[in-house]
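From the thread on structure requests for the teaching lab: each student submitted one protein with a one-line request. Submission from student K.M.:

"Model FAD-dependent oxidoreductase from Spirosoma telluris, tokens only."
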Amino acid sequence: MLHDADVLIIGGGLAGLTAGIHLSQENVRVILIEKHTYPQHKVCGEYVSNEVLPYLQQLGITVDELNPSRIERFLFSTVAGKTIESELPLGGFGLSRYKLDDFLYKQALVAGVSVIQSQVTDVQFDKDQFTIYTSEGRTYRSKLVIGAYGKRSSLDKRLQRNFILNDSPWMGVKAHYKADFPDDLVSLHNFEGGYCGLSQVEDGIVNACYLTNYRSFKTYKNIDTFQQQVMSQNPFLKDFFARATPLFEKPLTISQISFAKKQPVENHILMCGDTAGVIHPLCGNGMAMAIHSAKIVSELIIAYFKSQVPDRQLLENEYTRLWNHFFKKRLTTGRLVQSLLQRPFIASLLLRSLQLTPALMPLLIKQTHGQPLTASSISFETR
Ligand SMILES: Cc1cc2nc3c(=O)[nH]c(=O)nc-3n(C[C@H](O)[C@H](O)[C@H](O)COP(=O)(O)OP(=O)(O)OC[C@H]3O[C@@H](n4cnc5c(N)ncnc54)[C@H](O)[C@@H]3O)c2cc1C
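Reply posted by the TA:
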């Protein structure tokens, strides 16, 4: 059977681009379809856990040249301004998606990925092959498809995925600022109905990104009023927004962010990154998970093309098993921490317990983060 590609990847964010680079480096023919052009700003806290660094190095990707901030400390504040600080067990780096995604896109081209700017509108699976339809009316055929199209897409509706049936109350807002802010700190500040992360990205720029409930947001009509009247009840946020100079004309927003459970394989598509499951941003780890899932899916696909994974069913089963093994517990912990922090009384109780037992904080952080990704971090079950 003749295909346009061995693997077609839908979406060129972190998961899609990383998988594209990995597979192309192993001589797998890859087409990646991304609906936007590069570079683009994205709603994201832009703090990346260091757990991804060994894997990126293995792929020949060195983010150092982009001048990221090096982040080693974490600070949390309650609405009343009570704080707790901890070292980050692994640490991380701060890099804007504008720079990072564009950098990976260029690396993908060098690796031989065929990147097409278009929107995928439908995917059909028949007689052991996929047909992919785009908004330009083009069709592509491939043996395998990776779904790496992010949190929510019209494609989810088309594929009749369950999570899309329910509205989600969560919206995200992000902007860059010029402000005096430590370059080694990522901080998370609670406010009524949400929380806001602050950290430096490259070149001394500060990212302020928050998640809030749309119902509480919409009564304030606009972002400025919301930031002044609700978020600024937290003294840290009040101080930050009072002295920071915005670098965007207006903040970016996204709505309908769903944390509902999804399946890592649907309609035979291997789902990667946020398409397989979204972790609460307060855990600061969705980007590392996107890159990690790209590693898992790429290694399995390479084994499949070498006949080490004998058939599609085993490939899908094994991907589901590994995805659950690495990410299911993290997502559950994220949901739990999120629901606790949204109750002010419990949040301050939790903070007091963590203040009394400081060793608990790094343990809690470890629950939502992974181990450094080395070449040998997964082993397959092929029967
Ligand atoms: C408020 C907020 C703050 C966050 N902060 C952090 C943080 O500090 N650290 C962290 O690690 N994570 C954070 N995250 C999570 C992180 O942003 C995501 O986990 C990460 O972007 C997932 O990468 P991805 O490649 O799966 O998806 P994306 O980066 O969303 O990429 C998906 C791509 O698919 C494309 N696409 C969509 N539909 C189609 C289609 N039909 N056809 C073609 N292309 C399509 C999109 O244009 C997009 O480029 C945050 C998330 C939110 C909401």
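TA comment: The chain has a mean pLDDT of 92. Residues 5-42+90-166+258-341 form a domain with the FAD/NAD(P)-binding domain fold (CATH 3.50.50.60).
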